[in-house]
């Protein structure tokens, strides 16, 4: 496989981007195209043993920063994001992975070299929640704050295909996020979307679910508009951090609890590894006519490697090709 990686993407670029790419190249033997400032990327590569690895540097004279506005599509035409997506468009790479500005990535993907698959009205930004029961795909998480019912159906179709083809979930269960499980609950958008979901024979639609049911593993795909999805994502992230901080503080409060915490450390470590976001690494922008994987700006080398793994799985599952064939015009 040939996978392009945005070497100027992460908050600490290019160190984790390069290191993660090296780990991936060593693990799977793929060709990794590191896109970015050649001098900086080659200097970072020089810090590692890359003997026998297939690594190429593709120069990009500009980089999208975390503070750049959506007009970056026109203002930075030679950014590492533009160049990386052009590699996908031209067939020189099978996927593009970036830990850069998510808004910029989505805007460039939609309006730049790749664009949406013909017939897809909205591209969906996804999240993948690592739960004890497995992985749950969530869409949309912020790209489309205001949605129509047909948009949610489209998100459901694309996310279901991704869960099946890339994550290996057989007949993924699909649910709508609502304030009650009973049909008829929810806001106007949920009520309008429900009958349309029942009509989709390619979906294993199971109805409405409340947020608490998502964490118990009752669905493989949860669908919502970008506003609700972003609130859900940030609430889960903040809750996980709060629980971790409070638990750590309480364990250290006294001698007995400190000793107990030391005894329980292996269990805490296993739980932390299970719920670690770097285990997922990156998520796809669904509906784009080319495979684009978005990783978190705080990604370390392990997260970048796992984002590349997500790209590999989507390539192997022919996710973009199947969305284009089944849903495109």
Characterization of this structure:
By secondary structure, this protein is α/β, with parallel strands linked by helices. The chain has a domain at 1-120 and 287-329: Isopropylmalate Dehydrogenase, CATH 3.40.718.10. The model has no long low-confidence stretch (mean pLDDT 91). It has helices at 15-28, 38-45, 72-75, 80-89, 102-111, 149-165, 188-198, 211-215, 226-251, 255-275, 301-316, 319-327, and strands at 2-6, 31-36, 55-59, 95-98, 124-131, 134-139, 173-177, 204-209, 221-223, 282-286, 292-295. Helix 6 packs across helix 7 and helix 6 (149-165) packs across helix 12.
CATH architecture grouping of the domain at 1-120 and 287-329: 3-Layer(aba) Sandwich
Can you summarize the main beta sheet?
Answer: 11 strands, mixed
Cα-based radius of gyration, to the nearest Å? 20 Å
Low-confidence stretches: none
By secondary-structure content and strand pairing, the structural class works out as: alpha/beta
Give the number of helices: 12
Would you report the number of β strands? Answer: 11
CATH topology name of the domain at 1-120 and 287-329, in short, is Isopropylmalate Dehydrogenase
* H/E series: EHEHEHHEHEEHEHEHEHHEEHH
What's the mean pLDDT score? 91
Helix content bin: 40-55%
